[in-house]
Design goal:
The complex is a heterodimer of chains A (279) and B (102). Chain A has 279 residues and is mainly α. Chain A is built from eleven helices and no strands. Chain A has two domains: 80 residues; 193 residues, no CATH class. Chain A is globular, with a radius of gyration of 20 Å. Chain B is mostly helical. Chain B is 83% helix and 0% strand. The chains are: A mainly alpha (279), B mainly alpha (102). At the A-B interface, α1, α2, α3, α4 and α8 of A face α2, α3, α4 and α5 of B. Chain B: It is an enzyme of class 7 (translocase). Chain B: Pfam families: PNTB_4TM. Chain B: Its EC number is 7.1.1.1.
Chain lengths: 279, 102
Amino acid sequence: MDILLNIIYLIATITFIVGLKKLGHPETAKKGNLIAASGMGLAILGTIFIHELAVPPLIYILIGLAILIGSIIGWLIAIKVEMTKMPELVSLFNGFGGASAALIGLVEYSKNVSDVTQATTIVAGVIIGAITFSGSLIAWGKLNGSLKSVVKIPFYNPINNLLFIGIIAFAAFMIATGVDSQLLLYALLASGLAYGVLFVLPIGGADMPVVISLLNSLTGIAAAITGILYDNMVMLVGGILVGSAGIILTIAMCKAMNRTLGSVIFGAFGGGEAAVVGN
Amino acid sequence: MTDFLQFIEDNLQITYILILSIFVGIEVIKSIPAVLHTPLMSGANALSGVVIVGAILVMLHADPADYLALALGFVAVVLGVLNVVGGFAVTDRMLQMFKKKK
């Protein structure tokens, strides 16, 4: 049984690589997307049905229900959305992926807190998942116009950096002491969410695609980290693929706009001087 | 430092896979036309929905009496599926648009 699942994961991983490769060429892109999608479907079905756990029927029903709800909503949104609104939709979906990673961390934390390696992966998953979730929602809001395009906060840069250092210190404290406190974990989640908001808020609307690509890459890293937690190869390789390909793609998108990644992320702090250089 | 070396030794296989995967990701994306940037981002986004596998594992391992874990796992599965299905479907639509233009 175990071998069968591992072979399925191996096939799925290969479809991810081949699919991503084909997505990079205009003639094969559509096929590449289908290949990757079928690999994903295979991995999901394999995970649900191939294991030796004694799982009560209720849980199968819940999983089936969750997949049904998610598929129908996801499919309907994707089919109905206007062409011009697609980038913001990608951002929204990406945020959901990040939220999923964060939720997994919330459930797994108290079970694995005694093991430093496991606790580290869980805490990292919660933080990265939270940042991508709130960041992607802000990006989504900016692109659909419900958020004002540039929000100026005084002392933005120091506040943001302090918060980031604070989150890292907080996470290190939790891992080092191994405290089994859901409250602290939720506080960590909340600070990750706050950082995601602060990270994306000052970035201009025109730079949003780059930011979405960057957040997408982060979701991949969150997935990979969760893969380490479960010792699950398809999550690990799939996540890392998205993570590294996403960063290369982000840089390529910056280049296409004649800007550097630094000027997109930090340009907003400097009163837009980087944007002037770019133009 | 010794802890770190011990960690590498214990997880040698995963470390190799990690590093090789990073390079595969970089190679696969290298030199793609700018028109495909957005579909590729969308496709990669759908792939990052692979966290759904973890969400399903949470549900499978959950204690049926632990309602909080079940609820969180349930939401995680819904969100993960949204990411996967929505992501692939949107990518497909983007690529259709791309073909019409040509």
